[in-house]
Amino acid sequence: xxxxxxxxxxxxxxxxxxxxxxxxxxxxxxxxxxxxxxxxxxxxxxxxxxxxxxxxxxxxxxxxxxxxxxxxxxxxxxxxxxxxxxxxxxxxxxxxxxxxxxxxxxxxxxxxxxxxxxxxxxxxxxxxxxxxxxxxxxxxxxxxxxxxxxxxxxxxxxxxxxxxxxxxxxxxxxxxxxxxxxxxxxxxxxxxxxxxxxxxxxxxxxxxxxxxxxxxxxxxxxxxxxxxxxxxxxxxxxxxxxxxxxxxxxxxxxxxxxxxxxxxxxxxxxxxxxxxxxxxxxxxxxxxxxxxxxxxxxxxxxxxxxxxxxxxxxxxxxxxxxxxxxxxxxxxxxxxxxxxxxxxxxxxxxxxxxxxxxxxxxxxxxxxxxxxxxxxxxxxxxxxxxxxxxxxxxxxxxxxxxxxxxxxxxxxxxxxxxxxxxxxxxxxxxxxxxxxxxxxxxxxxxxxxxxx
Length: 452
Ligand SMILES: *[C@@H]1O[C@H](CO)[C@@H](O)[C@H](O)[C@H]1NC(C)=O
Ligand SMILES: *[C@@H]1O[C@H](CO)[C@@H](O)[C@H](O)[C@H]1NC(C)=O
Ligand SMILES: *[C@@H]1O[C@H](CO)[C@@H](O)[C@H](O)[C@H]1NC(C)=O
Ligand SMILES: *[C@@H]1O[C@H](CO)[C@@H](O)[C@H](O)[C@H]1NC(C)=O
Ligand SMILES: *[C@@H]1O[C@H](CO)[C@@H](O)[C@H](O)[C@H]1NC(C)=O
Ligand SMILES: *[C@@H]1O[C@H](CO)[C@@H](O)[C@H](O)[C@H]1NC(C)=O
Ligand SMILES: *[C@@H]1O[C@H](CO)[C@@H](O)[C@H](O)[C@H]1NC(C)=O
Ligand SMILES: *[C@@H]1O[C@H](CO)[C@@H](O)[C@H](O)[C@H]1NC(C)=O
Ligand SMILES: *[C@@H]1O[C@H](CO)[C@@H](O)[C@H](O)[C@H]1NC(C)=O
Ligand SMILES: *[C@@H]1O[C@H](CO)[C@@H](O)[C@H](O)[C@H]1NC(C)=O
Ligand SMILES: *[C@@H]1O[C@H](CO)[C@@H](O)[C@H](O)[C@H]1NC(C)=O
Description:
Blueprint: H1 2-23, E1 28-29, E2 33-36, E3 41-42, E4 48-57, E5 60-69, E6 76-79, E7 86-87, E8 93-96, E9 102-105, E10 112-115, E11 127-131, E12 137-141, E13 152-155, E14 163-164, E15 170-173, E16 178-180, E17 182-185, E18 193-201, E19 206-211, E20 214-218, E21 239-245, E22 249-256, E23 267-269, E24 274-277, E25 282-286, E26 316-325, E27 336-340, H2 345-351, E28 355-359, E29 370-375, E30 378-382, E31 391-396, H3 417-451
Antiparallel strand pairs: 1-11, 2-8, 3-4, 4-5, 5-6, 5-7, 8-9, 9-10, 11-12, 12-13, 14-23, 15-16, 15-22, 17-18, 18-19, 19-20, 21-22, 23-24, 24-25, 26-30, 26-31, 27-29, 28-29, 28-31
One 2-acetamido-2-deoxy-beta-D-glucopyranose (NAG) is lined by residues 118, 120, 122.
Domain Bulb-type lectin: 26-152
Transmembrane segments: 415-438
Protein name: Bulb-type lectin domain-containing protein
């Protein structure tokens, strides 16, 4: 009887020890430690992991060192070697060597140095590379365990890729002369630097999405704790923004507020232009719709050259009516022209200085979809009662009487994360209960053993 109890207890003990060693995964590399392609650093409470991930780009596999949340389908919040992909197959190693250099080595190619300390470093203290629960990977003095930034030599938060996590900064670091900004991936599969950036404009107090220096989208000016184009009605329930401005730095940061059981915020700038809230699974903006002619939802318009038709503040409005040629005797240029293909008619018309508007004639079945553009030699005749000859056209707003345009719809976006959060929370709760029961059972088993 006693033997069987002991055997049972030992089994529990072994399971417990296994679980414990799994749970007790490392979050730190000490000088001399390496991380291989099949092992993982796990932050203290298990929120984030640091490991090698494989991306398949154009059919070939490459490895990257990445920080991501420890769950299925997690966003890769940080990539350490986006400029130096590691060809496959190879078994890369992340090494924090005895001289406090952090580097990736593999069988092919040169080592990729992520951090090397300055030659004149004065401290005699021991250093460590630790993955924090914020998702920040930090090289610091091993003694500064009080969470202050004292003794920090390097941190991944200073080298953002395409993701803005709570606690990260966007803005200007005057000490390093560097700006903290996001740079999208090159494509959906390729982490190499892409075309789009998200940065903080400290003077204008707004976030901006840019493509090659052109501002396509802004958040609107920060005021009263929120941005006009970042869920102004509800953002304070989720984001606590702070703007820090002093002689060393000028930046925006944020922390998560609200229900701690909601998925944490995680902003990702995708290569196509969507700024996505990965935690809530909702788009903050689709900058790809900001093609230069509208101002919807924070889009920035590239205005027509000043000698063009139209006025400042013009945009296209949809009207019933038709274009009529003013003077058919002056035929030195086309009064209307047709472009076949599924192009964006608005953009083409906006970019063409003499274009007043366009329609999409349905009767041109032989040539497929397209746009018919109308030039400055035409005038627009509005006829909202008409039928037959009149049809729906898009016209520069300055050519029409600003009449009964429908009131702009209130931006009533609802948070979607409840939909995501509920099943996740349920699942987590189940796991927790299971874990709790198992652990209690094991602990009581241990207790019995100790008492013997
Ligand atoms: C990676 O490291 C772990 C622990 O350090 C070790 O158990 C494992 O065998 C290593 N894997 C490879 C492929 O070297
Ligand atoms: C790339 O990796 C995936 C999964 O990791 C694997 O299924 C695939 O065969 C690999 N492709 C090549 C070309 O190695
Ligand atoms: C090390 O050198 C850099 C310039 O190369 C200097 O900015 C820094 O203050 C020096 N640090 C120490 C501890 O001397
Ligand atoms: C944290 O530790 C550093 C030394 O490592 C010390 O200078 C600093 O005052 C400590 N901060 C707090 C808040 O205790
Ligand atoms: C950093 O941002 C500031 C302010 O937006 C800007 O004036 C400066 O040109 C930027 N510097 C770099 C290196 O991008
Ligand atoms: C927002 O952040 C600031 C600074 O980090 C803090 O003082 C404040 O208490 C936070 N507010 C809320 C509602 O969490
Ligand atoms: C940004 O604006 C430029 C100029 O209007 C345009 O060419 C580009 O396609 C836009 N980018 C996105 C992502 O919308
Ligand atoms: C506007 O000016 C540009 C050059 O300055 C010229 O090429 C274009 O034809 C002009 N457009 C009109 C409608 O006058
Ligand atoms: C005829 O068109 C030209 C532009 O091609 C314009 O300069 C001229 O004023 C027009 N003449 C009349 C009578 O509208
Ligand atoms: C139909 O498309 C052709 C070009 O494919 C164009 O020449 C013609 O004017 C169009 N017809 C109408 C009614 O828009
Ligand atoms: C509008 O169209 C209808 C039918 O085509 C016509 O009877 C009416 O006179 C038109 N009104 C104007 C202002 O052109």
